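Session log. Operator J.P. requested a structure for one protein chain; no other inputs attached. Running the standard single-chain path with token output.
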Amino acid sequence: MKHLLLGIFVLLSTFAHSQEKKIEKEEDIKRNNMPENAQKYLQDNIPEKSRKIRFYYETDGDKESYEAKFKFRKNRYSVEFNERGILEDIEVVIKKENLDRALRKKIDAYLEMENDRYRIEKIQAQYIAGGNNTEELLPGGIKKELTPDNYELIVATKNAGKLKKFEMLFDAEANFKSEREILRNSYDYLIF
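Structure written below.
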């Protein structure tokens, strides 16, 4: 019985640890390979003057999704759908200097407290489907008065001499919510 409980504990801790890692694979696809619901949403909502429209199938080990990425009015958008084509979120890349100063200071304070060194590589304002503003976000584009539900950051860290990269989520008030380590597949480093 003692060995069984120990085995279950080890298995559960391994499973819990694996949930904190993100191994994302993104595959370029054609629009007609997306679920019909997603195609209809994109047809009705992507602004006509959008540029660089690309479509992707993604898996991160836990879930599968479809994503459309495009540029509109100097902003880079990402519109994500679940495997059934139901809208999950809309994300817009923002520059660190365009983030509200108080939010920026709060995020920097958290990162400084948790890491020896860090570098923010990307910030996205995230608008969750059914949340505050997804209906107002497209097709008109970003309006300054829209408040995102979350901020998703890609952060490179250095702690005790080890380099790691994380996807971190902060709420609308810049309170830390979660993080997942981003792992690269070993074949990403192959040179042909």
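Operator note: The longest helix spans residues 2-18.
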